[in-house]
Specification:
By secondary structure, this protein is an alpha+beta fold. The chain has five helices and nine strands. It has one domain: Glutaredoxin (3-Layer(aba) Sandwich), CATH 3.40.30.10.
Length: 166
């Protein structure tokens, strides 16, 4: 079951090596992100779609990001050219995944500055991603991306958020 909020002492490390508490990452902007597992087909299938959604909000007073359940090097390899366009965090111990109470990846999330979730959509369920995206767009007075597009994959449940060894 998804959590209502994340703890203040949760640490996130960006792929540039900068580690900060979630409170520090949220000090200026709310966060809209996608949690991805670089070792699953499910996350690779949605990377382009997730990037397109994040790019829609690039200028919208939000910190858009990917949280990748791997090391910094694995996150860099998985995200490739998205590294220049979206903030990427490495979560090798799945601390964020556990704190958020996620059960399936990929997962779209909206985290407010008080560390409470505005919403979470788990797996690739386009109607859930669209609803959450529309909610964020309305709150931010921004345009919402088209979800899904013809290029997006068909809906799927996703993979286990804690991986196969957790």
């Amino acid at each position: 079951m998804a959590a209502a909020e994340v703890p203040a002492d949760l640490q996130l490390t960006a792929v540039d090596g900068q580690t900060r508490s979630i409170d520090e990452w949220l000090i200026t902007f709310q966060m809209l992100g996608v949690v991805l597992d670089p070792f699953t087909y499910e996350s690779s299938w949605i990377l382009g779609t997730a990037g397109r959604v994040m790019e829609t909000y690039r200028e919208a007073s939000l910190r858009t990001c990917f949280v990748v359940t791997g090391t910094i090097e694995e996150a860099k390899q998985f995200c490739g050219p998205w590294l220049d366009r979206v903030l990427v965090f490495a979560d090798p111990d799945r601390a964020f995944v556990k704190a958020a109470g996620l059960e399936a990846l990929p997962a779209l999330f909206h985290l407010r500055q008080n560390r409470q979730f505005g919403g979470i959509a788990q797996g690739w369920q386009p109607e859930q991603w669209r609803a959450l995206s529309n909610q964020v767009a309305a709150e931010r007075r921004w345009s919402s991306p088209v979800i899904p597009t013809a290029a997006d994959p068909v809906a799927y449940a996703g993979s286990a958020a804690l991986g196969t060894s957790a």
